[in-house]
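User: Fold both of these, please.

Assistant: Here is the first one.
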Amino acid sequence: MSEHPYAGDPLDRPAVAQVALVALFVTALATAQVTAAKILALPLPVALPAIGPEILLPGAAIAYAVTFFASDCYAELYGRRAAQVVVNVAFAMNFVVLALVWSTLASPGIDPEVAAAFDTALGPATNVVIGSLLAYVVSQNYDVVVFHAIRDRTGPGKLWLRNLASTATSQVLDTVIFVGVAFVVAPAVLGIGMSMPIGAAATLVVGQYLLKLLIAVVDTPFVYLVVRAVRE
């Protein structure tokens, strides 16, 4: 039996790279889960039509955009099947995060003021949880499928194309599903969470998507750097 090609490497660099990408994906996903309820208002240098002088977006948007960077790097390096395994196992881990957060919030605390602050900061609204979970499982699986569909048609080149195209389209699904379910459908149909007028929800969708699209463009050189570093 031949020796493993990296048996002499105490760090086993390919394994370290694979674990690091999975860790980045899960860390960003867990961060997004616990920050989704806060609505951010990011000022713009100039006011945009239909948006105004600031972009409104959920606090999870930035962390969640990082998951697409990690999943695209992982899909390019390890293939469609491996990427889908990571996406769907991480989906199950969402429930572990929620269970741990809820169990902590439900446990009695020594200082009532600190306990109340934790409830306010970390208590995920049910409508936000439903919207984020549904948006995640649809958009992330779609991203992996589209990424490899483009790769099958264009070959191993044009990584920039599949990174941008898969992320840009999957982020449309993610943004529309999350905002629509969390702030329109769930309050109206299920009677849970804060209801948002259609116009305000549309503004939230546009603002969130613009930021995610900008991140997708900016992270493309870093996708190349990660993929090249691991392969070399």
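And the second sequence with its predicted structure:
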Amino acid sequence: MTELFRHRSLLFRVMLAELRSQHASTILGTAWVFLYPLAFLSVYAFVFLFILNVRPLGFTPVGYVLLIFCGLVPFLSASESITAGASSVLGNMGLLRNTLFPIELVPVKTVLLSQVPMTVGVVMIIVATTVSGHTSSTLLLLPPVWVLFICFLTGLAWTLSVVTVFVRDIIRILPIVILLLMMVSPIAYTIEMVPSELRFVCYVNPLAHFIWAFQDILVRGKVPAAGVWAGIVAWGVVSPLIGYGLFMRAKRELIENL
């Protein structure tokens, strides 16, 4: 883990260069950082508000849209981290012999890059909640929840990047997994709307705990429940420990399988 601190300047420069290259050949450029989550929000809001006519108890239409957006922002960040993290080692084979930029930092880079659009999304949510009068002092809890979220995604990226080298089918399976995760993650519905016999699906989904935490802090204006805290702390600690340990143990074998 000390590699991250030691190479922080190099990691930042590589991230900045890649961020610029991602939007260099597009017409709208960095505007996509704003348009991408807004496009998803528009579709979700239209489907649940006007087609399915969903109205969670205690939420105005504006409050419900903010709840959806607050669930979408971390989900899209997780989706990007998972897909880019899984193929990060395969796409950077030359770094296995590079002593200037350790290969174990490549999955970290993908996770940190996914936080750029998430930062934009969170800022948009805070501005919207401020204008609509939903802001609360619970915003002070946002930094630790966000750090635990990044730790969880980093561990997941380390794990998937190693597994993908040995099982290339993972890259084809992940889009299906992400689609299923979108369906079972409480982005546009509350836990009260889920039948009691099916709520375990949400409880075993690690993304659900983080989404609940972000929604509580940013939209509901309340401290997340003890069970939610237990979930995000457990996943935020266990995931990077397992992922980093697996990556470092498999590092020597990666060269032979690439």
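The chain has a mean pLDDT of 84.
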